[in-house]
Amino acid sequence: MSDTAIQTLKNMLAHLDDAKKYQSLRDVMETLNAPDLAAVFEDLPQEKMPVLFRLMPKDLAAEVFAELSPETQEALIQGLSDRELKLVIDELFVDDATDLVEEMPASVVKRILAQAAPDTRKMINELLKYPEDSAGGVMTTEFMELRPDMTVRQAMDAIRKNGIDKETINNCYVTNADRTLVGVVSLRSLVLEKDEDRRIDDFMDTNVVSVTTSTDQEQTSHLFEKYGLLAVPVVDGEKRLVGIVTVDDAISILQDEADEDIAKMSAMAPTDKPYFRRSMWDLYKSRAPWLLFLMVSATFSSMVIRSYEDALAAVTVLTAYIPMLTDTGGNAGSQSTSTIIRGIALGEIHGRDLPRVLWREFRIAILCGGTLAICNFVKLLVFDHIAVPVAAVVCLTLVLTVLISQLLGTLLPVTANRIGIDPAVMASPLITTIVDTTTLLVYFNIARVILHL
Amino acid sequence: MSDTAIQTLKNMLAHLDDAKKYQSLRDVMETLNAPDLAAVFEDLPQEKMPVLFRLMPKDLAAEVFAELSPETQEALIQGLSDRELKLVIDELFVDDATDLVEEMPASVVKRILAQAAPDTRKMINELLKYPEDSAGGVMTTEFMELRPDMTVRQAMDAIRKNGIDKETINNCYVTNADRTLVGVVSLRSLVLEKDEDRRIDDFMDTNVVSVTTSTDQEQTSHLFEKYGLLAVPVVDGEKRLVGIVTVDDAISILQDEADEDIAKMSAMAPTDKPYFRRSMWDLYKSRAPWLLFLMVSATFSSMVIRSYEDALAAVTVLTAYIPMLTDTGGNAGSQSTSTIIRGIALGEIHGRDLPRVLWREFRIAILCGGTLAICNFVKLLVFDHIAVPVAAVVCLTLVLTVLISQLLGTLLPVTANRIGIDPAVMASPLITTIVDTTTLLVYFNIARVILHL
C-alpha cells in the first residue's frame, strides 16, 4: 500500500473512532493486511493505540503487533492490561516473541515473561541463548515433526492435530526417537500421495540441506537462494533438530545485508530503519564519524602535495590533473573492491583464490588503464594543448594508478576477511582515500623523472 | 556445498564414469541436490555431459537442467537426441522453459519449440509476450485454481487430481467462472479445516495482494518482503488470474537488484554472472566505459583549476587541501545519494517528498559540515601550522561543500527518478565527479575573497 493510501486509511479510522462507530471500525480493519495496519499504528497517537488494537480479532492483532517497530510495540504494551498482553504473547510465534524480549527495556521484558505461558517462556529462554545473528538466533522452535515409521495417514492425522500452532507445515521434518534429523517431507507430497498406508521413510527426501545453531544468519539465508527453499532446519552439535528458519526471515536478512553493504560503500554506519523513521541525531551519528575519519585520513595526501610543492610550482599545470587522477584511481579501486566484497559475501570468492583473483585483476587493470591512457593522451594534446612530456607524465600515472588501485582494491578486502574483519569496511570511501596518496606519490615521482624537476 | 566439495565430487564422478560404474554413478547422483549437481555440470567437458545427464531420473534431470547457465544448457542440448530433449522440456516448469527459449540462439529455440507439447508451446508463447522484467515475464502459468463454491473435500480432490503439475500448491487461488481472482486459500488451512463440507468462500482470504502482468518485477518482489508471502497472483487488465510469481524467483530478483545497485555505485555496468564465470572481455566491458566517461567528466575540474592557476601560484599551500576537500565532498554526496536511491528503490521515498527530504538533508549537512570544519580548523592551526585566514578558507569551504554535495546528492536522484531515468545512475562515482567541480569553484572563490587574490 502506498503512503497516500495509508494516510487515507488513517483519516478514515480516526473519523470512525471519533464517531465511536466501533463495529464499522472493526469491519474495516478486518479487510486489511497486517503490514498495512501496522503502518497505520506507527503514526497513531499513543492513547489511540489500545482502543483500535482491542477491536481486532486476536490472530490479526498478534500479526499486526509482530510487524510494529520496537518503539511502537513498547508504547502499545504500556496501554494494554496484563490480560490483554497475555493474549498477544500467546498468539505470537515464539521467534517473534523472542525478538520482542530482545528489543524491550528490562521492565517491559519482566512483564512479558510474567504473562507468557510456562512452555512459551521456556522456548523464549532457549532461543535467547543463541547469538542474535546466528541461525539459532533467528529460528523458530514451532515446526512440524514426524517419525519415519509413520504412514501417510498417521502423518496427516498428526498434522491435523498439531499443525495449527506451527509457523509452517508446508515442510515437515522427519526425526528419529533421539530427535536426529533424518529427512524432510513436504505437505504437498503427503497430500498428493495416493497410498495412504505408505510409510514416510519410503518417500521422504533424505538429502536435507540443514544448518547448525551457530551458522551465520547470512550464510543461512544464501542457502534459500541457492536451493530455492521455503525453510531450513537447524540442528545442534549432536545433529538433533532444534528449530527451523523460514523464508520470510531469510528475505529480510538478505535485504538487510544488501542495505548494510550499500551503507558501508557510501561511508555510512548501517541502520535498519526506513529513511523517515530516522531522527536527525540517528542520521548525524551514522554519517559524521565516517566523514571525519576519512577527512583525517586525507591528511596523507596533503602531506604528499606539500612535500612536492616545488615541483608543482615549477610546472603549475600538473595541479590541474590531480582531481582527475585521484578520482580515476578511486573509481578503479572501488570497482575491484566492491566486486571482491560482494564475491566474498555471496561465497563466490575465498581466501585461497587470492593469487587467481590478483592475476585476473592485474590483466583487467592493464586493459582498462591502457584504454584510459590512450584516450587521455589524445585529449591532452588535441584539446588541452599540453606539451608531450607532461601528457606522458599524466598518462603513465593513469596506467599505474589504475593498476595499483585495482590490486589494492583486491588485496585489502581479501586480507581483511582473512584476519576476521568484515571486508566491507574496505569499501569505496576508504579505498578512495588510500588510493589518493599512492596516486599522488606515483604522479610526482614520474614527473620528477620525466620532467627532470 | 563449498567449491572444494564440488571439486571432490567432480573427481569422484569422473572416476566412476571412466570405470563405467554407471549404477554407482546413478546412486551417487540421486543423493545430491540439483544446484550442487548443476555446479558439477558447469565444469564438465562437453562430451561427458549427455552420459551423466541420461543417468539421472527425469525429474532430477529437469531440475538440474533449470539450474544450469545458458552456455551449459546450450552445450548439453547439442548432445541430446530429440526424444531426450522432449523429455526435459516436458518436465520443466513453463517459466523455466520460457527463460530457456529467451536465452538460446534461434536454431536451438526452433528445436525446443518443435519438441514441446502443443499446450506447453502455447503457454511459452503466451509468456514470451510480456517484457522480461515485468511480473508477466517472470510468472508461471502452472498454479492451482479452485472455485468459491467448492467444499473442502471437493477442493482436496481437485488438488490431488491436478496438483502434481503445478509449481506450488501451498497457496491455491479461488476464481469465478470468468477467471476473476476472488480469494486465496492455503493448503495448510484446507488440511487443518475440520469440516470437510465447508465451502471455500466461507473461509478463503478475500484480501489478496496481487499484481498485474505489467507490474515491474522488482516492485513485485518487494511485496514478498513486505507481506511475507510465498507467491503473488498476477492478473490481467480485466482482473482475470493469468499466473503467479513464486518466492524463489522473488529472492533471485531482489538479490540481482541489490547487485545491480552495488555495481552502479562502484562505476560498473551490472552483470548477473558470478565473478569467476565472467571472461576478461566481460569484466573489461563492464568497467572501462565507466572509467572513461568519468575521466572525461573530470575535465571540468581541470578547467576550474587551470583558470585559477594564478591564485594557486600565489598561495601554493591551497593545493595541498584539494584532495581532502574533493574527497569529503564526494563522500558527503555519496551518503545522501545512496540513502535516496535505496529509499526510492524500497518505496520509502517518493517524488512529492522532495521538499521534506531536502529540508532534512539541509539540516544534517549543516551539522556534519560544522563538525568537520571545527575539527579541521583546530588541526590546521595546531598540527599543520597554517595561517588563520587560509585555515578559514579551507574550513568555510568544507561547510559549503558538504552542504552543496548533500543537496545535489538528494536533488539529482529524485529528479532522475521523476523524469523516468534510473536514479542509481546518479550513484557515488558520478556525484563525486560533479561535486569535484563545485567544490573547487567554492574553494577558489572563497580564497579570492578572504585572501584578496
TrEMBL record, chains A, B:
Summary of the function given for this chain in its UniProt record: Acts as a magnesium transporter.
Pfam families for this protein: CBS, MgtE, MgtE_N
Gene3D superfamilies reported in the protein's UniProt record: CBS-domain, MgtE N-terminal domain-like, SLC41 divalent cation transporters, integral membrane domain
Family: Belongs to the SLC41A transporter family.
Keywords, alphabetical: CBS domain, Cell membrane, Magnesium, Membrane, Metal-binding, Transmembrane, Transmembrane helix, Transport
Name listed for the protein in its UniProt record: Magnesium transporter MgtE
Residues of the CBS domain: 139-200, 204-260
UniProt-listed InterPro entries: CBS_dom, CBS_dom_sf, Mg_transptr_MgtE_intracell_dom, MgtE_N_sf, MgtE_transporter, SLC41_membr_dom, SLC41_membr_dom_sf
Location(s) in or outside the cell: Cell membrane; Membrane
Subunit structure: Homodimer.
PROSITE patterns named in the record: CBS
TM ranges: 362-383, 390-412, 424-446
Membrane topology: Multi-pass membrane protein
